[in-house]
Amino acid sequence: MQGSAPTRAAPTGIPSLEDASAFIRRLRRWSFGILLPFFTEKGVAESGAFVEEFDLTQRPLPAAAIHTRVQARMVYVFAHAANMLNEPRYAEIAHSGFEKTARTLWNRREGGWIHAASAHGDVLDVRCDAYDQAFPLLALAHLRRLGMTDADIWIERSLEALDRRLVDARHGGYFEEAPREPSRHLLRRQNPHMHLLEAFLALEEAGWTGNARERATHIVDLFSALAERDGAIGEYFSEDWSTPPPDKDTRQPGHQFEWAWLLDNYARGKGGSSALANRLASFAWRNGIERDPAHPHALFEEVAPDGKLITPSKLLWPQTEAVRYYARRARLGDREAEARANRLAETILSSFVMSGGPLWHNQIDRNGKPLARSVPSRVLYHIVACAADATIAQGGTT
């Protein structure tokens, strides 16, 4: 299936109030009116696990494994949508999805969420990966808001395993995985910490009475110091959080926008705003956005610390994170932010969404040619979060 032709020219000036959010509204209608109904009908396999990947003709791809990261993201998607839209079917899918995830991907012996299993529960990869641990916690925060009776038990169980197996008491933050093998010298990643921050903030918003704010503060303090040192937030670090080898010292514009949204969210919980969030978003926009009107107006995958382009292809998810951030800024009266969000929403619809259908091109080259041969369900997490936040920012209607 072919996507429609990419938009070729950026608008001049700031659009009128009448059309400033037209494409954001269309993106929301696509997300809630086409995308979620498709995944409701086609997104759960006979095993009860979520389908992790589709081909470009909307057929589920066979998979030897299911993964904590993907399954928990899908639970979050349906729980968040159920809370927002008051849709009982979405709540059912979220609850049953979590039950399946817990049966197949919780490590009953060591605690924590394993990396992968077969759909029928055979353990395939027992690693306790820090990135994976974030998403069951995020899902549980939204399940708690849905009234899941044992949500707090699972939250506390998950956090106990996280602390026992992955906390780095010497350098701060979390180790990459457990068990740790001395022969494997893994670089530290920002990504697990960013998503754990997201989970801790969601737990706080869901009314969990534990130490979510304290946990969030630990991550914010650590990465605020790193961002001050490095100018933005890098993807990788050495074990002691020093800069990594030069070939790994990169910046992803999409992650700068994710961090910016989270830092603003954290600051709002303290009754303030985040200057660092604005600096990260400014770095991403200044260095990461396509300026050539002959190419789709979208964020690149990766740039160097000085802003030089490294990877010119464009993924869908960074565009959603930028829309999400700018939609919130627009709610505060920032007209330029609204224009940016709307322009990126237009690019999503014209260059990534497949002719108005329920699926998308996950990656395009700089010219707009689709590169990905399949559609990963895990990206639904980014799309729904974006659409939900845009809905809130624009008055709460889908």
Keywords:
398 residues; mainly alpha; Glycosyltransferase; 3-stranded antiparallel sheet; two-stranded antiparallel sheet; 51% helix; globular; disordered N terminus
Question: How would you sum up this structure, described in words?
Answer:
It is a single chain. The protein has 398 residues and is mainly alpha-helical. It has one domain: Alpha/alpha barrel (Glycosyltransferase), CATH 1.50.10. The protein is 51% helix and 8% strand. It has twelve helices and 13 strands. The chain has helices at 22-42, 68-85, 88-105, 130-145, 151-166, 190-205, 212-230, 253-269, 275-288, 316-331, 335-352, 380-393; strands at 53-55, 66-67, 116-117, 123-125, 128-129, 177-178, 188-189, 236-237, 302-303, 309-311, 314-315, 363-364, 374-376. The strands form six sheets. It has a three-stranded antiparallel beta sheet with strand order 2-3-4. Strands 1-13 form a two-stranded antiparallel ribbon. Helix 2 runs parallel beside helix 4 and helix 8 runs parallel beside helix 10 (316-331). The longest helix is centred in the N-terminal third of the chain and has 21 residues, at 22-42. It is globular and about 55 Å long. The model is unreliable at 1-18 (pLDDT under 50).
- Secondary-structure element sequence? HEEHHEEEHHEEHHEHHEEEHHEEH
CATH class: Mainly Alpha
Q: Structural class per helix/strand content?
A: mainly alpha
Helices, by number, come to 12
Name the helicity range: 40-55%
Number of self-contained structural domains? 1
Mean pLDDT figure = 93
Report the count of strand segments: 13
| Biggest sheet, spatial arrangement of strands | 2-3-4
CATH architecture: Alpha/alpha barrel
* Distance between the amino and carboxyl termini: 27 Å
| Alpha-carbon Rg, integer | 20 Å
How much strand content do the residues show? 5-15%
CATH topology: Glycosyltransferase
Low-confidence regions: 1-18
Net shape: globular
Query: Main beta sheet: strand number and arrangement?
Result: 3 strands, antiparallel
